[in-house]
Amino acid sequence: MTAVIVEAVRTPVGRRNGGLSTVHPADLSAVVLNALVERTGIDPSVVEDVIWGCVQQVGDQANDIARNAVLAAGWPETVPGVTVDRQCGSSQQALNFAVASVAAGHYDVVIAGGVESMSRVPMGSSGTFEGSPYSPAFMERYNGVKPNQGVGAEAIAEKWGLTRSDLDKFAASSHERAAAAQDAGLFEAQIIPVTTPDGTVISRDEGIRRGTSEESLAKLKPVFKADGVIHAGNASQISDGASALLIMSEEAAARHGLNPIARIHTVAVVGDDPVVMLTAPIPATEKVLAKSGLALEDIGVFEVNEAFASVPLAWLKEIGADPEKVNPNGGAIALGHPLGGSGGRILTDMIKHMQVNNLRYGLQTMCEGGGQANATILELIN
User: Fold this and answer.
1) Where is the Thiolase N-terminal domain (predicted)?
2) Is 337 part of the annotated catalytic residue set?
C-alpha cells in the first residue's frame, strides 16, 4: 500500500518563556490534532494511532504524552497514542513509523507529529535523575568522553574548515529568509493559532530577529570553547511548539473524499559518530538518494535542520547541493527548535513550499542525539 500525506499543520514556534510557555504540551498537541480534524473533516474515531515525538519525557511530558494529547483534544477514548524518542528527529521518525505501518497494511489512517515545551520541561530534564545514560561499557568504548552537542558542533567547524564568519553569515541569512517568508505570508497556511490560558492568541513565530547581521552576531561570546566559533546566535533556539501530519493509505484517502498532498518516496536512517554526534545527515542523505534512484539535481528543496550553523554548512560541503535550495524559509536558528516537534514542523514547511513552487521532490534530514539522522524524500502529488 502507498502512504500519502493528506494534511500537515503546526503551531507557531514560541520563544523560551514566551507566548506558548503557559500552555501545557498536551494541550499544545491537542491544538494541531484538532486542526487536522477541522481541515479535513475526518471523524477522530477513524484514527488508528497517534505516533508522537517528544524528547524530554518527564514532568508535563511524561506518561505517554501522545495518549494524553488525544484525550486532551477531546477525542474518543478508543484512539490510542504512542510516544517515540529519536532525539531531535523524533517527529520525523514518527512520520517514518507511520508510513511504514500504512505501507505494511497495519493502519489505514494514522497521525504523526510531536511536541516539545522547552520552557516547561527544560532540555536535559530527563537526565537529571541519579545515574547516567552512558554506561561503563559506553564510556570505556569512547575513552571516557561524554557526548556534548556543542562540542561536536565545534569539532565539525574545525574539521570542515568553517570560520566564525561563515557560521555567522549563515545564521544571519536564516533570520533574513525567515523574516521574508513571514512577511510574504508563507507560514500562514501551515500555522494554527494558539489561544493561551489568559486568552492571548499566538499566531506568529516568535524567534525571528529582524536586522540580524554578521556584525551584530560577532559581538556574542563563544559558549563551548574560549576560542571557539559556536555561540547562541549561530545555534538553534530553545523553543515551544507542536506539529502534526495526517497519513493515510491512498485507498483510505479516496474513501474519505480527501486529496493527498504528497507521498513518501523514500526514507532512511543511519548512525554515525556519537561523540561528534552531528555528522549523520551527510551519510543519511547519501543513503536516501541511493535508495530512491534520484539524483541530487532532482530535488527541488532541501531541509537540513539548523541545530548549529556548522551542521548544514558541513553538509553542503560534502553533498554539494545548491545553497539556494537549502532551508529557503529559514531554519531553526531563526524559527526555533522545539525538539520533539521540529521534524514535523520542518516537514510541514517543506510540503507547503513544494506546493507553492510546484517542486516535485523535497528532501529533509536532521542530526540527532547519539550520532544518528533520519532522511525523508517527499514527492508532491499534483
Assistant:
1) 4-251
2) yes
